[in-house]
Amino acid sequence: MVANPDSELPHNNFDTILVLDFGSQTSHLILRRLRSLGVFAELLPCTTKIAELTWKPKGIVFSGGPSSVYDEGSPHVDPAVFDLNVPILGICYGCQEIAWRIDSKNVARGKAREYGHADVKITKVNSHVDRLFAGLGEEVPVFMSHFDKLVTLPTGFVVIGATKNSEFAGIAHEEKPIFGVQFHPELEHTPCGTDILRNFSVEICGAQPSWKMGDFVQLEITRIRELVGDKALVLGAVSGGVDSTVGAALMKEAIGNRFKAILVDNGCMRLNECEQVKETLGEHLGIDLTVVDAAELFLGRLAGVTDPEKKRKIIGSTFIDLFEQEAIRIEKEAENTPNSGKVEWFLQGTLYPDVIESLSFRGPSATIKTHHNVGGLPERMMNGQGLRLIEPLRLLFKDEVRAIGRQLGIHESLVNRHPFPGPGIAIRILGDVTKERVEIARQADNIFITMIKEAGLYDQISQAFAGLDTNRSVGVFGDQRVWGYIIILRAVQTKDFMSAEVFNFDNAFLAKVSRAICNQVEGVARVVYDLTSKPPGTIELE
Ligand SMILES: Nc1ncnc2c1ncn2[C@@H]1O[C@H](COP(=O)(O)OP(=O)(O)OP(=O)(O)O)[C@@H](O)[C@H]1O
Ligand SMILES: O=c1[nH]c(=O)c2[nH+]cn([C@@H]3O[C@H](COP(=O)(O)O)[C@@H](O)[C@H]3O)c2[nH]1
Ligand SMILES: NC(=O)CC[C@H](N)C(=O)O
Ligand SMILES: [Mg+2]
């Protein structure tokens, strides 16, 4: 009998803290902090029906959120959460939610926004409630971000911390393990935040901090085998980026050559990229990889298109056309071989931030860019060919994926590689894409990245590249007038790619790069360095 593959999910194998999300921008950081302590944590919307939970959390955190508990239409937890009899920690809105549930008059709008640093005086009560702030001393700096506040202490609760502005900055139930804090322990600006989350999860909830990537890999391989069975074929789009490579390596471990990887050369890849991916995935990792050379097709469809979203759509739909063809080809070729079977699964390298994005209790946010390179693939192929999605990394953050990559023996240079967008150089050329322009941007990018590596700066930068402005500028090269393109260098530092700071190079280094590009890449008249942080800029040029 085949076991239920869900039995292998981390929340059934590791003590898990459930984070109920009220829409805070920093809910995911609560998970990051807990996981970095070795405590597995999962996020669900605050409106989750407790009766529908298929697993029992060791404890629950209510996140912060942009709403006000007393407003009509504001989100509230299922009251059944209090009957689970597991410890609860409310953060900011989450704390206000605990107080409001007891009496709606407990929470009101404050006189002023309290945003930024505050000092919490810890009150010792000499009972179980002291456990939350154990080991922190008498006063700790924290980060606040709120307008509403507790104006009355909820019945049955005691104060465990106070600031000048918030008398009830920390509260705890006299008997039950229910705690609330007005400040944000998940932020770096709350230096003792990790200690508080450890006190809560390990000491109060009793969660074993045993979340290890090693165990995850084994569990996931078992789960994949059970899901896919012993006949079906799995198709995977791989780019040579970290996510798809780690996903592919896991699939290969799980089902060997029944996993078929496809790399599409869309004509907008980095210098020598396809050859390198072929070598790493095909030769070193032993993955059955086909490189589809579609450069002409993509560049043809992109000719004359300047709108960035149109470029993305054209590239996305061309990817789909090719994957459909490949699925048919793979099935045909597998016929009459020991691996004959239907392509039933499509591998995607979805990460947890994407999952959180879709689960999270947030209002509609503006679409700045459509990032999904293979977007639409699921719907069309799922309905047409009955494909199902398999997403082995959907519970992981990027640094966890990198850790698995190392464990699977993927080379450090690939594991630490800067991300590269699916549409590639096409969205790094401001304006319409031609073969000549791609080639110029590609050469310039290779020079910039090589010099960054030689200077030992690569791992300090989160993402760097050279793009091209199709406007041309006049230059003088050896007494000759040159009318050439402008190369835009970009390098940023960021943790989550949602916001980013410009990397501070030495001017002398930038001057050296500029000289090298002007000298070595024909068609370039000028090199500039982009000084825009994100926001207001985005990381890619388009
Ligand atoms: N040239 C390509 N050929 C085939 N699939 C691709 C290609 N480019 C992107 N993809 C698919 O799109 C997915 C999303 O791309 P994305 O850049 O977000 O991830 P990645 O390339 O795996 O990792 P990284 O973020 O490190 O670049 C990839 O995981 C891969 O499945
Ligand atoms: O696979 C992708 N397809 C896309 O269309 C795309 N656009 C941006 N990016 C990557 O996303 C991160 C944030 O980029 P932006 O600040 O430009 O939105 C950066 O890491 C970008 O490289 C993309 N990745
Ligand atoms: N960060 C938060 O959770 C804010 C909660 C609530 N909206 C307030 O202003 O107090
Ligand atoms: Mg990529």
Automatic annotation (TrEMBL):
A single GO cellular-component term on record? cytosol
Q: In which pathway does it act?
A: Purine metabolism; GMP biosynthesis; GMP from XMP (L-Gln route): step 1/1
Q: Which domain of life is it from?
A: Eukaryota
* Reactions this protein catalyses: XMP + L-glutamine + ATP + H2O = GMP + L-glutamate + AMP + diphosphate + 2 H(+)
The broad enzyme category this protein falls into is ligase
Q: Where in the cell is it found?
A: Cytoplasm, Cytosol
Q: What is its main location?
A: cytoplasm
Question: Where does the record place the GMPS ATP-PPase domain?
Answer: 211-417
Q: What is its EC number?
A: 6.3.5.2
| GO MF terms held by the record | ATP binding; GMP synthase activity
At which positions is ATP bound?
239-245
State one Pfam family annotation. GATase
> Could you tell me the keywords of this UniProt record?
ATP-binding, Glutamine amidotransferase, GMP biosynthesis, Ligase, Nucleotide-binding, Purine biosynthesis
Checking InterPro entries in the record gives: Class_I_gatase-like, GATASE, GMP_synth_C, GMP_synth_GATase, GMP_synthase, GMPS_ATP_PPase_dom, NAD/GMP_synthase, Rossmann-like_a/b/a_fold
On subunit structure and binding partners, the annotation says: Homodimer.
Q: What does this protein do?
A: Catalyzes the conversion of xanthine monophosphate (XMP) to GMP in the presence of glutamine and ATP through an adenyl-XMP intermediate.
According to UniProt, the name of this protein is GMP synthase [glutamine-hydrolyzing]
List the lineage, top down: Eukaryota, Fungi, Dikarya, Ascomycota, Pezizomycotina
